[in-house]
Amino acid sequence: MKKPKAGNRVKPPHRVSVLSSASAVLLLVAAGQTTATALPTHTTNWQPPTASYAASAPVHTTVTMDDGVKIAVEVVYPTDPSTGARASGPFPVLLTQNPYGAQRSDPTDSGAYFVERGYIYVASAVRGTGDSGGQVDWFGDRQGKDGANLVDWAAHTLSGSNGKVGLDGCSYLGVDQWFTAAAVGKNSALKVITPFCTDSDFYNDLTGNGGIPTPFVAGIAQAEPRGPEDDPATDPQSVTIAQQATGGSRSYNDAYWQSLNVQKLMPRIVGNTIPALTEAGWNDLFPGGNLGAYVAAQNAYHHRPLTDPITSDDPVTGRYQAIVGPWTHGEHVNEEALQAIRLEWFETWLKNAPTGMATTSQPLHLFENGANTWVDSATWPLSSDTRTYYLGNGSLTPGKPVDEGSDTLSWSAATAANTLTYTTAPLTKAALLDGPTDVTLYAKSTTPETELSAELSIVAPDGTVTKQADGILLGSQRAVDTQESWYGDNGTLLKPSHPFTQASQRAVVPGQTTRYDISLLSNFTKIPAGYRIRISINSQPPADFHFPVAPTPQELANLAGGTYTVERSPQAASFVNLPLTAPSSATPSSESWGPSS
Q1: How many whole angstroms separate alpha carbon 201 and alpha carbon 207?
Q2: What pLDDT is attached to residue 47?
Q3: Average pLDDT over residues 404-422
Q4: Judging by beta carbons within 10 Å of its beta carbon (0-12, 13-18, 19+), is residue 9 exposed, middle or buried?
């Protein structure tokens, strides 16, 4: 079983510090509003370049893929600020793959920052979108091959290129980088990627929550401008949407979703020697969604099991780094603070600049909520410390219940009929919430299916409630994969992993006490002394759930009219396992990795 250990604290040899700035980036649009800030400062002699070029107007062209499909691209070149003439170059190329069309917002807004500092910026429209030919799909090997073709073109055909290519982009434009990096093969012109605003495992992160499909793919499809050869009624992406809605194969974590699991791509990416800097937010669509990719990349590089936690005994490499900030999806990405960090990463790998960035021994950069500071680490989680609290009569207590007790929930299609809330006594010492949480419920149901959600919050002395994490579980998908699950001290379950396959599905037996292990998302928060910890249990996702679910017709039929009895008795003691450790486990970074709010 996987058991995280406390991490060593080694001060990184170097990092650029950046200043805060404010703005928001829309979920489905790659454009950003740049806010002027001072340039980063360094603890070494290296300094990031200032803007020395202007950006040309976009040049429109097409690139033919290996199967004959033509992909539309827009190219922006560095120009002489005084004359407007193209700079002589040659320059490295930054490429982004955009499902919302080769929008001018990419090369002239996000890309302008890099063009002004000596890069050619290329925005391509994903096949089946914008002016690109072919049929649109939901990521996959075909989009990876398209990316590999575009990299080859950018390196060897594009005028002004010096033959070195990096990938840039947030959200969909970030995730596609993983597939391209996996497809390029060894000795490619692709030298570096920056998958920002990304998750790690599509099914578990975004397209299925607790074994229940979500409307995520269908929502993205509505925002995509379909290309001249795409038919939204029959394209491959539409197959996924239809199967999720009707309970088909892709409503489960089937072979299709396994093929799109970024963690499983990592051996190919690492084998192709492509370094990666990832970014996500604690308030993202999938909070801390890039942590799984960080873990998988480090493990792939060092030939360990891909999904094992990183412990203090495990070596790490600066080639694979991750940032998790206090942000929503896409927030601050195209402001100068995070642009400067990406620039340093590109300068390191595309221009061989002596930044020292890749030599850090602590390549994981986490914003510690509550303490409002950045922490650098190699391990994830930082500690294996855990605390178990048992559900009582509205309380969470360290000891098991000694008396019989239970609480009742009712399920309805519209909203949860009631909420069960359990709260600890005020903490006598400050604690650090460090990683994922398990909520284990013993419950009886009147129906052959259950839907149980849990939300973790902290409660200030003045009564202010701040959500930390949430999770949900479809009762028929309660099977636990002990090899993939994470455990803390003394074998305490912290991150239950469920297969969510058709084969693992088992109907709930009405009237029988059944165990449900609900996995709550990771967070990293200092909880002051005097605060209380609260767990809220629902039969539906709460209103502020990180992403909504859309049960299939069969699931809805099996859920209808359900009443759940949550046990809190000596024989069936429901509990929560919290990854709580001493705040001293986290050593504040001497550098900033982005805005603090």
Answers
A1: 9
A2: 83
A3: 88
A4: middle
